[in-house]
Amino acid sequence: MTDNPGERTRSALKVPYREREESVTASEMAGLDPPAAATDYEFEPEAELLTINIGPHHPATHGVLRLLCTLEGETVLDLEPIIGYVHTGIEKSCEDQEYWKAITFVERMDYLAYYFNSYVYCSAVETLLDEEVPPRAQYLRVIHMELNRIASHLFWLGTAALDIGAMSMLWWALRERDGFLDLFEMSGGQRLHTRYFQVGGVAEDIPPGFEEKARKIIAGMPARIDQYEALLDRNEIWLQRMKHTGVVSREEMLALGVTGPLLRASGEPWDLRKAMPYCGYEQFDFNVPVGTVGDNYDRYRVRLEEMRESLKIAEQALDGLPEGPYITTNRKVALPPRHELATSMEALIHHFKLVTEGFRVPPGEVYKAVESPRGELGCFVLADGSAKPSRVHMRDPSFVNLQSLKRMGEGSLIADFIASVAMLDPILGGVDR
Amino acid sequence: MEVTRTKVGAPDEFRSRQLKAQQMLRGDLIGPDLDEYVEKSVLLTRFEDAQNWARKNALFPLGFGLACCAIEMITVIGSPRNDLARFGAEAIRFTPRQADLIILSGRVSIKMAPVIRRIYEQMLEPKWVIAMGACSSSAGMFNNYAVVQGADKFMPVDVYVPGCPPRPEALIYGIMQLQDKIQRSPHQGWRERYRSAGTEEAPDRIVAEGGGADLADSEGVDNA
Amino acid sequence: MPDATGLELVAQRVRSAVSEDAVVDTLHAYGGATLEVKPDAVHDVLAHLRDDDDEPYEFLSTLHGCDYLPEEPRLGVHYGLLSMQRRERLAVKTRLGTDSPVLRSVVDLYPTASFQEREVYDFFGVQFEGHPDLRRILMPEDYVGYPQRRDFPMGGEPVLFTFNEHELPRWYD
Fold first, then answer.
1. Contact A23, C135 (CB under 8 A)
2. Quick check: B89 and B52 in contact, CB under 8 A?
3. How far is CA C131 from the centre of its chain?
């Protein structure tokens, strides 16, 4: 490791292959030429650096992330992430949809934490409308969000362990996840992207068997998490690969804008659920795990502990679930219940107006943020008085956290770098939107 | 000590079959016995059918996840509840040179489309494509500047699995449909429909008017 | 969040520290505080708010762009600041016109702005002076146009119904 690895690479970076690979242009892609042969390759005898492309299609299932690495032997000297391979124009599409239709678009951004996406958007619109959410809806939202946090961490655990080589974790994690997805299917009708959160509350009340099944799953989870810890925590190989790899200091993380488990693992106890509570989180009693060193092992431990804390929150929410409406009674914003449509003319008119045109939101702009499994997920909504939002921007945590990848990778071995990518938990749907 | 003798029963019973097999191995079966034995244990079929049967039951999917449908695809591959090993397709290969089924799971953006096409071309024949989910079948709900409106704009697709995301059972059903397709009609006549003559896919093949290739063509040297 | 009077005090301090006409407007709505500043002064205002102010904001939460199309000036860039000590947020926004959308980059103050400024450049066309690597980030690099401006067309294909299916060319023609 040199003292300043970035310096040495500047001159060696003028290799034509790297320059060509660094910029992704549509016209070049249209030609589909394979990379040129070694004839136009300038050989730098003293550098002996290898530029490789960990391409958009690679086995680690973090999505289509492309990393352009410059290696010297096995040490990563320079690294550049190239993103945009799953850019779907969700933010622009939302401008063309009514407010309640945009919920489906926004959900598909960070596709493992879908309830968080829809919650933050609904919360922003409710703020603009100055709409109250009934307490039962708040508790239901908390339950679903915390269960989604656990499911997201389970998937992360399975795929991260798969990257390192501990394949059994994948089967175990997916087995637990099926239980949670069954719960979501009971309440929302679909396993992923349920469109369960609506502006003003939730779409439907939970069905009768939900609470019992949820309690059973929550009761069985701590033993499972103990099993995962028994497999990985003291495992020699796991410790060798995770301890003291990918260390980034707390100040650098703050400067890079990183939030979430990554920031907490490096020692800063910042969690939006405790610091700026929303949706009734101040009523629940839970802890926030904070790491010390900031290496990959801390990130792993922080997320496992977060799973346990989420179980506690979900159980408290189930215990304290109040009776009452599950969506706001303001008919100008929320659809009336179906049985009213047969008897009340007004309900019919409201239903018609809401479904065809949607509700109008008075002009204004607001930014709301929540704590998603990856960090601070924010939503900025600009309303101009019509039935469609004028601008929806999601501040996605993975997009900002990805900037810390370069700091994690510089100077480390490539295998450790792959472990860092796994522990970073990027979701490319959120990065690219 | 009690000795019980049981007479060997009907000729189909397991014990009698075992005895017959032993006799054959020793070379004791001759004449009509041998003919009968051979008839019972040999299945006659066309070579192509047997080949298709082998191909359909040993698919090697390419691990290719793009977006949310990839989560469901991984669930299908890995989850104990619905898994792909029942269909012989659990060997996920991550290099296109060794895979023959590419499952396009997720939305295809304009930046990713050439990459997918390049990977598709690196796969060896015969190869199949499943467009999983609404986004790769027809752009789903993203009718905008950034998403290719359906993967069949730039590559031939065999099976479309609708849903957003499709349930794991739906994907498994799609794979079963693909297996049926492989068994029944592997000519892949859609290549003619995509006017692929003269392109990299079929550089020197002159496409005959009026219909697909016959059986000899599909398995012979014309598949470049 | 700083309340209305707190916001006015912040505005006063910024005016006295940076320049008299730096702060164009203050807005306190929906429980949040917004400070609208003039485009040339953005970097100095953020530097002041990070380092010198009595109530410093050391974390840049979000940097995003916005297109207020019927109103001029058209493009808006929002900086969401956060103070973890006092648990407060302050939004700083500027408005630019499309004729010369140039801003000074704040990457030297907040390194997190690197990707986010590239995104604003990619989608709205705002040039950030002093950014080390201003290229498109999510679209291919030779893409023409700034997609998230309001007058950029949505793209995609028209949906085929029976009334228009005869007019549109189909792939097998």
1. yes
2. no
3. 15
Q: Examine the pLDDT at A148 and tell me if it is beyond 90.
A: yes
What pairing do the DSSP bridges indicate for beta strands A50-54 and A66-72? antiparallel
**B142: which chain C residues are within 8 Å (Cβ-Cβ)?**
156
Residue with token string 């058209």: C74
Q: Helix or strand or coil: residue A405?
A: helix
- Read off the DSSP letter of residue C52: I
Q: Is the CB of B80 less than 8 angstroms away from the CB of A429?
A: no
Average the pLDDT over B25-33 and give the result.
78
Beta-carbon-side half-sphere exposure of residue A24 (alpha carbons within 13 Å): 23
pLDDT band per the 50, 70, 90 thresholds, residue A21: low
Q: What pLDDT score was predicted for residue B5?
A: 72
C34 near C26, Cβ under 8 Å?
A: yes
Q: What b/e sequence results for A196-206 when a residue is b if at least 16 CB atoms lie within 10 Å of its CB, and e otherwise?
A: bbbbbbbbeeb
The DSSP letter of residue C50 is: I
List CB contacts of A312: < 8 A, sequence separation 6 or more: A284, A285, A286
CA distances from A242 to A236, A263, A373, A397 (A): 10, 17, 20, 23
What is the rounded average pLDDT of the residues C36-54? 85
Q: Scanning every residue of chain B, which has its alpha carbon at the shortest distance from the alpha carbon of A88? A: B146
Query: Considering CB atoms only, which of B111, B145, B152 is closest to C155?
Result: B145
For residue A37, what pLDDT is reported?
42
Mean pLDDT of all residues belonging to chain C: 85
In angstroms, rounded to a whole number, what is the distance separating the alpha carbons of residues C17 and C47? 10
What is the average per-residue pLDDT within B162-190? 83
The beta-carbon neighbor of B149 closest among C152, C156, C172 is C156
Q: Could you give phi then psi for residue C90, rounded to 5 degrees? A: -140, 130
Confidence band, pLDDT 50/70/90 cuts, at residue A393 = very high
| Residues B180, A347: Cα–Cα separation, whole Å | 50
% chain B with pLDDT above 90: 4
The whole-model pTM stands at: 0.84
Residue B213 has pLDDT above 90, yes or no: no
C-alpha span between A370 and B144 (Å, rounded): 28
- For residue A128 the two structure tokens come to 């603009």
